[in-house]
Write a structure and sequence with these properties.
The structure is a homotetramer of 308-residue chains.
Chain A (H helix, E strand, L loop, with lengths): L3 H14 L5 E2 L4 H4 L7 E6 L4 E5 L5 E2 L4 H13 L20 H5 L10 H12 L4 H16 L5 E2 L1 H10 L1 H12 L7 H12 L1 E3 L1 H7 L1 H4 L14 H14 L5 H7 L4 E3 L4 E6 L3 E6 L2 E2 L6 H14 L6
Antiparallel strand pairs in A: 1-10, 2-3, 2-9, 4-6, 5-6, 7-8, 8-9
């Protein structure tokens, strides 16, 4: 078994030197001004050992990675009834496609494309005030990461809200089919804010531990979800976690993972480790370019692929 | 660790008694007349122990399961150059959709939808006579299953060839984009015949062993493919192996698998076992209804899900 | 030449007796409560003679028929530059489809599908206050119909605004591509209100006269648009005026026409007459069922088809 | 009324001098080697006067223009029952799109896209030998053009047959839905051959006369179809005759017309004239570039637009 600390540091070194860094998202100024050379990685194994390197303490906008946690919360609230509002098949489309919604009567294909995540947020909101729902999500993140300092980047949320016309379109489109139950503004308000949660690699890897260990935090022994639910969330991460690059990620990395447009990826090595990487440059499918390569390298050197 | 023999026999009993059996494929008479009550299962573990129950020695038409093996052969021939002719993303469409091809210039999304498998067959054919290519595929199946008695059901192949207008359309459509290089009739001839290979669950589970054990047959020690290639084929099986029901299969079963319209499924528990089930009734997505349930039960009872 | 008055009265009688009346739109209560048995027709010939029958003086919600007049206004404002914001090809899709927008970068196919009409409204608005733009549209309708009593049904506009999620989606979607320049709420406010203009068949036939007579009102001699522009607006009405039933309307009626979900249709017999019919029940494509049949009968009896 | 002869000669002069000539089709060598500078025009008025200029006696491959005549024949055979096999709505797609077929269960949108024309050919074939069906089509063309010298360019037909993979795909796809009843090879054989009919502008304008004159040849008085059918064929030509450029043609030219990839266009001025133009260079939508401009000029100078 290779030494995890060594491997993690090697990877950070290798990534720092690569000239190919992808393209930083520019659709809002708050993301555009992030340092394209940043790179962070944090791995927490079953015993709670943390191997980290690079900018692993720097907060970044977790964006769509938050969808893993809102999915977990929504399943906790309504259980399998969630699946009448959102599917769980890969989409074969970009993250913000509206075409699929028209073909399938407003039901998003899975909870990780934007439309699906908005529908999941609507389930969490269900009748509460946006402020309350957002508070619940934030408390859940702080609990999972065991860190009360986690906050929302209000400037990011405000920018998203001001320019997120395509998400507004998706939400209204679903509303026209009755898939969104709350006022669209409320649901989107919560959605834009939970995507704007800022976390470091270390915090994120900590928050993902329950997915690597049968639904429990192996250090505290606290159960977050049943084993089967953790397993199923991992399955959805594998098939749908990287939009139209999910097949590629499974093929190359071989771990369940969820990416965000801020350049972060949360990956799970079941039974072994929770992993977070961050590199702001994105590939064509909108996933962190170096983040994916770092995870591919890590999975290969540690022998962690779930595919043998 | 539960007793595998016991679990396999329990599952066969439970499946035999279920009233919900799905719908047997009727598009050709040879498939339509298969006994809807048939059920077979065979599991071969790392030590070569075979646990089998039900109709595990009865031959059935493996149909699309053959695509796992033609993919393996084609990768052996041309390596990663294969990926210029076919993608590896889930399709978000039924198995025989032609829409995606128009959007993506004739390049099929993955090697397991019909169009992709036809393109893979075209790579294996590449300049040879159909008879030679077919011989190569058949020899490969016999080698993997260690059984020279495996044959092609000529009546099935002839029926497919006579009525397979949609596959003829797919092949000609790809030909119009230059994705098919051989005469369409040649490529389709080989395709229809390798889909008509008849095997039992025991033979099929034997043939799949290299995918469960890092590319090697653990009994003979013979290597079929490199470890990384076996892993990657498993990844494609997981994300694309059940057409537009792939997300569902990953979510419920949690194992790489490939289904066929004859009612068979080959599933891989990496490091643990190669599994074949057969139940002719299909669900809405065209995958074996009881086959999927049997695998879900097996994975749960044995703790074999790759997702933790 | 048959007697126009006689023909118009015969048609009104025949329509009154037909049992097949289509389905009245029910998506807002104001439309749902309209009398399904209502039928009106008004035809104004080149000499200004008015032949009318049935409920030809009853006001109804002109809805999408207003798009003919906003198109005329927008062309008056920006001329052919309009065509960088909207196409002029039939859509091959329902009136409110969003799929086409994704495929064509947010540019609506033509000015008569909802997305296209919203883009046209945005051009009219361009920097003004919604109230001013709406005033301009209303003044134009009153001028054309020579009737200062024409007004907007505020209850209809308010209902549309409260429930028009799909139109909100379309507008935001175009905004995300930069096709909408004003605040979405402003543009949609004007759009919902001009669709809520209430007119009778007589008023509507009067307003359409310039399209039948080379751009001029033949009674007053006043020019509204150049001859070529009138001709071109007629062409767009023929190819796109009935959404995905435009081919059917051209095939059966053979006149340029524009329908509205309130059950009205404005049709133009170039050189001969301006025609308005109203029958609230709709066919599957969302066009007035009896309105189309009445126009088909009128065109046949009068020999007015433009196709010979 | 301007002098037709003069106008026709002016147009030929103007077209000869234009530098923008579009792109000659190159998908088969027989079309690729046609002179890009060729231009022909022939107009036959109600009295049988022929105004012609340029290469109006040169034969060219009429290609899709033949679809107007096969539609006429098929309607003669089965009447309105034809419309259960093919629609009559504009497609909103390129001429050879297969996407629409999947969405609408194998029923082509209209008889002028390739799929629709193949379905129409299948109706004409219905149980006969290809040779007989082809003979019938050819005899019909010779009768209409009053010229027994019209023939099929066998080299063109052979080239199409050898390389027409997309049409083979379309036909097999429809066959999979049961929309094609004859063996696909038979139907396509007839289709490729009738598209390869070679005619001059003069012959083509002669053949189209019945559409301009209520279904009859005004010189001989012979009736080809009922008045209503002629009118309806004109309507389909207007809404669907130029593929995804049909709206543009209606907008600019204002006459029913049908284009062919060989560079020809047949246009009808109802009650006034039958018109054929030929200029081999095509625009982006696959229609004759100068042909359309010539017709736009002709319609404007003669005041023949059907839109007023």
């Amino acid at each position: 078994m290779p030494n995890l600390d060594l491997v993690v540091n090697e990877i950070a070194d290798e990534m720092r030197q690569r000239p190919d860094r992808g393209e930083v998202a520019t659709y809002i100024p708050e993301l555009a001004r992030v340092d394209a050379n940043a790179f962070g990685i944090a791995v927490i194994d079953a015993d709670g050992n943390v191997a980290a390197a690079g900018d692993s303490d720097t907060s970044f906008s977790i964006q769509s990675i938050s969808k893993v946690f809102t999915l977990t919360l929504a399943l906790g609230k309504v259980g399998d009834r969630l699946w009448s509002r959102v599917g769980r098949e890969p989409s074969g489309s970009p993250f913000n496609s509206i075409v699929q919604l028209e073909r399938e009567q407003g039901i998003p294909r899975n909870p990780f494309i934007n439309a699906g995540a908005i529908a999941v947020t609507d389930v969490i909101l269900s009748g509460h005030q946006p402020r309350e729902a957002l508070g619940e999500i934030l408390r859940f993140m702080r609990f999972l990461a065991d860190d009360p300092a986690i906050t929302i980047d209000k400037a990011v949320a405000a920018s998203e809200q001001r320019t997120g016309f395509r998400n507004i379109a998706l939400a209204n489109y679903m509303k026209s089919f009755g898939v969104i139950e709350n006022p669209v503004d409320f649901t989107l308000g919560v959605y834009f804010h939970h995507c704007a949660i800022a976390m470091s690699c270390k915090q994120l890897a900590m928050a993902g531990r329950f997915l690597a260990h049968e639904g429990r935090n192996p250090s505290t022994g606290l159960s977050v979800v049943h084993r089967e639910r953790a397993r199923r969330i991992n399955a959805i991460m594998l098939t749908c976690g990287h939009y139209d690059g999910s097949g590629e990620f499974a093929y190359r990395v071989g771990l369940p993972g969820k990416s965000g447009v801020g350049g972060g990826i949360l990956a799970i090595a079941p039974g072994k480790a929770s992993i977070a990487v961050w590199a702001p440059g994105l590939d064509n499918a909108g996933n962190s370019h170096l983040g994916r390569i770092a995870l591919e390298t890590l999975a290969k050197r540690m022998g962690w692929s779930i595919f043998g």
